[in-house]
Amino acid sequence: MFPTPVQKTSAGVRVSYQAFLPLALILWLLPLIAVMIFSIKPSVDFTTGNYWGWPTSFEGFTNYGRVFFESDMPRYLMNSVLITVPTVIGTVALACMTGFALGVYKFKGNLLIFFMFIAGNFVPFQILMVPVRDLTVDMGLYNTKTGLVLFHIAFQTGFATLFMRNFIRALPFPLIEAARVEGVAEWRIFWYVVLPLMKPAIAAMAVLVFTFIWNDYFWAVVLTQGVESQPVTAGITSFNSQFRAAYHLMSAGSIVAALPPVLMFFLMQKHFIAGLTLGAVK
Amino acid sequence: MTISSDSYSQTQRGWYKRNEIAITPWLFLTPGLLFFFVYVIWPIWQSFGMSLYDWNGLGDINVNGTYIGLENYNKLFGLAGERADRNFQISLWNNLRWLVLYLLAIPAGLMIALFLNQNVRGIRIYKSLFFFPFVISQVVVGLVFTWFYLPNNGLFTVITNWFGFQIPGGVLGNPNTATYGIIVAGLWPQTAYCMILYLTGLNAVDPEQVEAARLDGAKGRKMLWYVILPQLKPATFIAFVVTIIGALRSFDLVSIMTNGGPFGSTRVLSFYVFEKSLSERGLQYGYAAAVAVVLFLIMLVFISYFLWAMYKEEKAAR
After folding, report:
1. Where along chain A do its domains lie?
2. What is the pLDDT of residues A118-166, one digit of tens each?
3. Using CA atoms, how far apart are residues A108 and B72, in angstroms rounded to an integer?
4. How far apart are CA B256 and CA A241, in angstroms?
5. ipTM greater than 0.85, yes or no?
6. Interface membership of B131 toward A (CB under 8 Å)
7. Rounded to 5 degrees, what are φ and ψ at A218?
8. How many degrees, rounded to 5, is the angle at CA B168 between CA B165 and CA B172?
9. Which of A133, A157, A262 sits opposite B35 (nearest CB)?
């Protein structure tokens, strides 16, 4: 193990390591901690200039209550859910299929298609922006959740295919061959042999795509406007103009907006990390 | 008897059955390819075309737009007697700053990973909490840092005041510091990402090699450089890929924290494309498309390198 485990070092190093650990964490998360404290402060703290001191009273319930009951935040959150969940399902479904095709079969153009998916995934959003927006308008889907979902599925499929294909490649191929010898139809091999083995990859992909899409801001701004379809990342800007300079409410709103992916991460940490490393770092 | 029944079933097998292995991959690929083609490949092509037009985004480009050849590019780069676009140059320089400074996330991530690669009580929680910034949306990161940098009341300003220096207008209000302020905000989640890549990488480092090197007297920096880093190469590669992509994609933070200001000093190419087309200052779609093409070509250099590296690996794996 590198660096040398602290257990094998002198008592002094050990103790200072243990002491420095929480300190480093607090420093690292300082901006976030500040916002958390902001969100439970009374508004009077900001008018008196007590930005960074201790809250004069605990107003957490009032602040978060106002976010939930006096703003459009719940609707934005709902929109985010209704955009994110279908995208996750669609992406995983498509990527399982493309990953299966590219991972199991040898055919002309296999690597070319695979590389096209990877390259597409790295493309700057802005080169797609106007054409995708026009396409969405032409389909009558501008400012709808469906329009956003369709684009997200298409784009995320590139990344998800990369992951799924590499995962399938690592599966024991003799399993598939054995099934073929038995005369099992190819789609049955996909459904009954490969898919059950892909559960960890599906879980990893699902959490990761969930986080990416929940946190998307650019496409939300390009393809939607207004409370009937915008997700929470875009909604937070109008929320902030509603509560201009009301830092306690803006920070409470931000925390609410940021929470779902955080929960997702803590619940599914292992899968999340497997996905982030693109399955390449084991 | 058996032979005849065999040949019977042979003729009964349909065209699909006979070509099953050749056809199946294409059946499985069709929906994904279709989506990808319509929403990714074709739009790239369209943007290339659009960049050759003068078009305000209204109506059909072939009716309301005017074909002007490379005129948009001439304006961008100041070729053919045009004056170079100052805002484009600012964006380009800022993108370069982003690219170079963003790479700091890789050594920073490695350092934090080394710091956390211990086996003490509660280390798992520490690791996840250090990773926290990456999970949060860039919009929220941007807001958080905007408040952190607030002139007069921002925590950053309060701290710099202790040391007796001040940035006039605040970090984000000062054209000389604004871009760097945003980059620091971006480095925060990016470092967390690189950290997690290295933490997983360090897990896979071969303990026997480390022990052997230790017996040979290697330690500290030498050990890191000659024994550990070579084994972390896959992690470094991915960290490099995602950091470059992240640097060139920087839109959310710029849009949230400064909206390109003050005086347009924090523009980057991705933001400039948006500004020139969809924002109220925009409506020059052809011109914006030309900027997008330039950004795409810059990205393409890196994409080609990534694909080449992956291709080599594919070949080696076979």
Report:
1. 72-276
2. 998 889 999 999 999 999 999 999 999 999 999 999 999 998 998 899 8
3. 39
4. 12
5. yes
6. yes
7. -55, -55
8. 110
9. A157
- Establish, for the pair of chains A and B, how many residue pairs have beta carbons separated by less than 8 Å: 280
Tokens of A116: 């096209």
* Lowest mean pLDDT across A38-52, B82-96, B189-203, B243-257: A38-52
Residue keyed to tokens 């956390």:
B116
**Nearest one of A182, A162, A180, A173 to A119, comparing CA atoms:** A162
Question: Measured between alpha carbons, how far is residue B127 from residues B122, B138, B149, B243 in Å?
Answer: 9, 20, 27, 20
Tell me if B273 and A126 make a contact (CB, 8 A cut-off). Answer: yes
* Closest among B246, B127, B144, B271 to A257, alpha carbons compared: B144
Residues whose CB falls within 8 Å of the CB of residue B116, separated by 6 or more in sequence, listed in order = B123, B126, B127, B130, B195, B199
Report chain A residues whose CB lies below 8 A from the CB of B155: 30-31, 34, 51-52
pTM: 0.90
Task: Assign 3-class secondary structure to A172-204.
Answer: CHHHHHHHHHCCCCHHHHHHHHHHHHCHHHHHH
For domain A72-276, the CATH superfamily is MetI-like (1.10.3720.10)
Instruction: Please report the domains of chain B, with CATH numbers, ordered by start residue.
Output: 86-283 (1.10.3720.10)
